[in-house]
Amino acid sequence: MHFELTEDQAMLAEAARRMSDEVLTPILLAEPADQPLSKPVMLRIYAHLAEFGVTAARLAEPAGGSGLSMLDYGLIMEQLPPVIALSLLSHDGSTVRFEAGASEALKAEYLAEFIAGRRIVCTANSEPNAGSDSNAISTRLEIEGDRAFITGTKMWITNASICDCMVVSCSAGKDAAGRPMPRRVLVDLAKSTVGLRETALCGLRQGHLCEVTFERTEVPVENLIGEAGDAGKFMTIVWNANRPLIGLMTLAIARRAYEVAREHASQRRQFGGVIAGKQLVQQDLSDMEAAMVSARLTCLYALGQLDAGARSNGLSAMAKRLATDAATRVIDRAMQICGGMGITEELGLAQLWQDARVFQVPDGTQGILALIHGRDITGTAAWR
Ligand SMILES: Cc1cc2nc3c(=O)[nH]c(=O)nc-3n(C[C@H](O)[C@H](O)[C@H](O)COP(=O)(O)OP(=O)(O)OC[C@H]3O[C@@H](n4cnc5c(N)ncnc54)[C@H](O)[C@@H]3O)c2cc1C
């Protein structure tokens, strides 16, 4: 068992850190902090991500992707600005969902564009009445000759307002046992009409989260992907990998708050000495470090298990829940260590808390993650 990064991994993480610090963060700082980034800005960001080789990070090399190990991908993700990492997670995961089942003609038209980051793709599954119960989608798919029509509403769709294409989960009826048969359909926004409404969030405010409406949106039947009933499987495959990645992204936010608190504690003097020298402040810092290190190792372990081909639904869910819980608690303690300064806008810790808090919802809420883990532990699914 090795806990050291290999030389290649250390170089990869360092290169990602440099791209983040020297290229991506300056782009973000030049834009309003509380507004979704424009599409031209996102395309600039994607050009850098493509050059770095992460726009199709987990797509296998024979399919044109980078074929990165999930562990290596995690080491990169924790270096990226979180708002960019979330967008990338959607794009890269959607590329996987597209590639697995799209016709050769469809791939010829779109795949190289997604890989190059010239066209951004997202996944639209959640609906007003289908959140945690992701199979309960009701967006209707009707096929008439060589055309297909989509009718329904999607909610909380990352990247939707800056994307070129969406992989939309549609209801294609029920199987003989009465189970829903969701089907993937590619919608090209240059060729089909959809309604888009941005949803403002309390965190990651330069990001994009949209409601998307389809009013008999027309697409060619060639845009149907895979088989009726297989959409859920490809949602889960991507979610299993996304969860520890989101954990690492959230912990990176917590680490920033921790560093602010540590620095503050080493400067701030009360009762005749720096507060870093007071026992309870040291205990707080120790608890924070312990929570971050243990959660990060769990996320990396979950990614390593995915690379090893192990079934890791429960482990991935556990890793995300542990990490996103730890992160918000760490940031809360960081705010407390900074006293009055901790709740000022000047120090920015409250915004970090809000950014981290966002990650407790996508790709499985804390409750649902506990149930996925619980199912692996007990063999019984508690949500049915
Ligand atoms: C930042 C962000 C990005 C997102 N990106 C996308 C995207 O790109 N594409 C997409 O399709 N969706 C996306 N989503 C949607 C996301 O997947 C859903 O928000 C999530 O699945 C939760 O659904 P919900 O919000 O409807 O909450 P609900 O399902 O209504 O859950 C509300 C609460 O009830 C609890 N709960 C629900 N069912 C049970 C149960 N059986 N037992 C115990 N507790 C339960 C949950 O844990 C939660 O605390 C995104 C969401 C966010 C916040």
UniProtKB/TrEMBL annotation:
Belongs to the acyl-CoA dehydrogenase family. Residues 122-216 form the Acyl-CoA oxidase/dehydrogenase middle domain. CDD domains: ACAD. This is Acyl-CoA dehydrogenase. GO terms for molecular function: acyl-CoA dehydrogenase activity; flavin adenine dinucleotide binding. Its cofactor is FAD. The keyword Repeat does not apply. Gene3D superfamilies: Acyl-CoA dehydrogenase/oxidase, N-terminal domain, Butyryl-CoA Dehydrogenase, subunit A, domain 2, Butyryl-CoA Dehydrogenase, subunit A, domain 3. PANTHER family: ACYL-COA DEHYDROGENASE, ISOVALERYL-COA DEHYDROGENASE, MITOCHONDRIAL-RELATED. Residues 6-117 form the Acyl-CoA dehydrogenase/oxidase N-terminal domain. Keywords: FAD, Flavoprotein, Oxidoreductase. The keyword Flavoprotein applies. Coiled coil: none annotated.
